[in-house]
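Lecture 7 notes: from sequence to structure.
We start with the chain below.
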Amino acid sequence: MITLFELQNAQILGLLFGILALGVYVTFRILDFPDLTVEGSFVFGAAVAARLITGGFDPFFAIIMAILAGIAAGAITGFFHTTLKIPKLLSGILTMFGLYSINIRVMGTSNLPIDSFSATPDATLISRAADALNWFARLFGQDASFGFRDATPQIVVGVICVIAVIALLRLFFNTEVGYALRATGDNEPMVRAQGISTNKMKVYGLMIGNALAALAGALVAQQNAVSDAGDGAGMIVIGLAAVIIGEVFFKDKNNYRAFIAVVVGSVIYRLIIAFVLRYGNPHDFQLWIALVIAVALALPMFKDKFNTRLKKTSLGNGKGGGE
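Predicted C-alpha cells for the same chain:
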C-alpha cells in the first residue's frame, strides 16, 4: 500500500514541477515553439539559487536572480532564432548544451548541497515557511514544531508559488502584449500584417517560459536541499506529459482554467510515478516512466477516437428511433 509520505511527496513535486509545466505550456502551446532550453534553464535557476543561498544571500533574492537567469536563457534562444535565423528546435538545443557548462561554473561543482541547518537556519523558502507556520500555531496556543523536511511547509510554499504564478500569467495574457503573443502562436502572418513584431513576441514568450522553468528549478533545489547539473535531463518530457494530462482531463480554452489544468496534470503525473515506484521494479523505473509518458501523449488520440465512436453510436441510435 502506498504511504502517506509518498502521496505527500508526489503532491509537493507535482506543484513545483507544475510551474515548469506552465513554462512548457507557454512555449509549446501558446507560442507554438518547441523549446528545449528548459532542460538547461531549470538547472540554471537551481544553480543560481543554490550558489547564492550557500553564499549567505536571502532566499527571496536568490529566487529573483534565478528568474532573471531563466529570462536570460530564453533571450539567448530567442536571439539564435530571430536574429541568427537558426531553426527553433536547434536554437533551444544550442542554449541547453551551453548552459550545462555554465551551470557547473556557477555552482563550482557538478553537485552543490544547500545546508539549511547551518549558521543561517532560514536559508530557504521552505525553512521560512516552517518558521511562519510555527509562529501561527503558537499564536493560537498550539504546540507545533514544523521543520525543513516536513511536508506541510513544502506544500504551503508550492501552493503559494503556483497561485502567484497563475495570477501573474493571467494578468499578463490579458494585456495588449499578451494578446499579441497568443496571436503570434495562432497565426503569425496575420500578426505581422498588423504591424506587430512577431520576433519580439517570440523572444518574450521564450523569456517567460524559461523564467518559469528557472523558478521551478530554484524551488526544487531548495526542496531537495541540493542542486545537481544532471537534474535537467528529461524536464521537457515531464513538462509535456503534465500539459497533455491536464488538457485531456481538464480541457478548456480559457487561459486561466488551462493554467490550473496544467498544474493538476503535473500532480496527477507525479502520483502516477509514485505508484510506479511503489509497485514496480526499481530497475525498470526508466522504462515505466517512458511508458507512462507515452500513454499520456497518446491520450488525446484515444479520447478523440472514443468521442467519434460515441457520436456515431448516438447518431445510429437516433436514426433507428426515427424509423
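Points to note: The CA atoms of residues 115 and 225 lie 7 Å apart. Strands lie at 111-113, 226-228.
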